[in-house]
Amino acid sequence: MRMPEFELERYFARHEFDAPYLLSSSNMETVRMDGLLDLADDEGRRMWENLSLGYTEPQGHPLLREEIASLYETVPPEGVLVFSGAEEAIFALSSVVCGERRGGRAAVVWPAYQSLYEVARSAGAQLDLLELRHEDGWALDPDALEDLVGPSTGLVALNFPHNPTGAQPDAETFSRAVDVAREAGATLLSDEVYRLLEHDPADRLPAAADLHEGAVSLGVMSKSFGLAGLRIGWLATRDLDLLRRVAAFKDYTTICNSAPSEVLALIALRAKEEILGRNLGIVLENLPHADAFFEKWRGTMEWTRPRVGCIGFPRLLADHPTDRFAADLVEGEGVMLLPGGVYGHPGNHFRLGFGRRDFPQALERLDRFAERRLA
Ligand SMILES: Cc1ncc(COP(=O)(O)O)c(C=O)c1O
Questions:
Q1: Quick one: which atom of ligand 1 is closest to the CA of 87?
Q2: pLDDT of 344-356, one tens digit each?
Q3: Which pLDDT band, with edges at 50, 70 and 90, does 228 fall under?
Q4: What is the percentage of the chain residues whose pLDDT exceeds 70?
Q5: Ligand 1 first shell, C-beta below 6 A
């Protein structure tokens, strides 16, 4: 299996641990270990203190699966398979589904986190990209999806809330898209890693796994919870036969998950109201700064303000390629901005992340740089 470089991850690898300000991160501000342990209930604390470090159950710790299942309306704990991050889950599911139907097609939303289409392609699928457009406010069009899928479509991969735009459709539109996949007889991989951080909780979409018994919802501790270092993600579905085949694949990747990470994820999920509430507070404090920034730079930059999550995909209207702009910004101001080119997107966009506490300071530096470069 030959896979091309993952452009976004290579870009992050170059800058993430050197640049003092990260203005494109897709995950929330994290917490320290002591802060997380302070949130543990008695059982969680006991599990942490008495943890033994052998192999863990391949499907995931039973209590963790139970806690994850409670995030869904209809998925039983046996319908949850825990992975080392969402990334492993995408790799396993896409490899299984596309590998079983080599030469089949995969319909994937675009622009997208690269593994959502690259793994399918590497596993033998031919891609049909469902493009979201800036001009349409990044709207999902279920009719366009219907035109893309057919009898040879084995996999449909959606991602709402969406990376990089932060867009999400209304519940009816999303449900129609889920129906399109169901009617085509395709496996739906619904990447929902940015779920649970709706700016207005009334905007929360139902999980695809609850809408359709054959759909698979993907979740993770990295994004809304800000716990990327745990590397805990999961697939949730009522299709237990599919899950069994994916679990068999996982024997060739990690076999089972990190024991400490599973317990810490359990502690965090049991404290989800507190953690998500804190994180939403950060986002809601940061957004007015972004509003003022885009108001000031109206005519030079524009964006569709997201209603969920902590990323958006603004466009630079000035005659400056964002890759050059981002390279000079990190050099001159120590601020990392992700140019849209890493998504293979031609529209001179960049990804903005507003989930970190130092967002106002980082934005100030971007503003200062823009004054020099664009004013
Ligand atoms: C849409 C999407 N899916 C999956 C992932 C992978 O998540 P993780 O790094 O937690 O494995 C990411 C990470 O950026 C993402 O943006």
A1: 11
A2: 999 999 999 999 9
A3: very high
A4: 100
A5: 26, 85-87, 113, 159, 163, 191, 193, 220, 222, 228, 233
Query: Domain of 316?
Result: 7-32+273-373
Residue type, 264: L
Of all atoms in ligand 1, which is nearest to the CA of residue 231? 10
pLDDT score recorded for residue 40: 98
Ligand 1 centroid – CA 194 distance (Å): 9
Domain shared by 247 and 279, yes or no: no
Residues 167 and 195 in one domain: yes
The single-letter code of the amino acid at 216 is V
Concatenate the DSSP letters of all residues of 245-283 into one string: HHHHHHTTTTSS--HHHHHHHHHHHHTHHHHHHHHHHHH
Per-residue pLDDT reduced to its tens digit, 63-109:
999 999 999 999 999 999 999 999 999 999 999 999 998 789 999 99
90 and 117 share a domain? yes
Q: How far is the CA of 294 from the centre of ligand 1 (A)?
A: 27
Tell me what pLDDT residue 239 has: 98
Nearest alpha carbon, ligand 1 atom 7: 86
Is the predicted pLDDT of residue 130 greater than 90, yes or no? yes
**Closest ligand 1 atom number to CA of residue 26:** 14
pLDDT in tens, 209-218: 999 999 999 9
- Closest of 18, 52, 2, 22 to residue 262, by C-alpha: 52
Q: If you take atom 15 of ligand 1, which residue's CA is the nearest one?
A: 113
Residue 101 belongs to some domain of the structure: yes
Query: What one-character-per-residue DSSP string does 293-352 give?
Result: HHHHTTTTEE----SBSSEE--EE-SS--HHHHHHHHHHHH-EE-EEGGGGT--S-BEEE
| Cα dihedral across residues 344, 182, 78, 172: positive or negative | positive
Q: Quote the ligand 1 centre to 226 CA distance (angstroms).
A: 12
DSSP classification of residue 112: -
Are residues 191 and 267 part of one domain? yes
50 CA from centroid of ligand 1 (Å): 31
Of 222, 238, 271, the domain-final residue:
271
- Same domain membership, residue 310 and residue 217: no
Q: Is residue 45 in some structural domain? A: no
Q: Are residues 75 and 191 in the same domain?
A: yes
Domain of 330: which CATH number?
3.90.1150.10
How many Å lie between the centroid of ligand 1 and the Cα of residue 193?
7
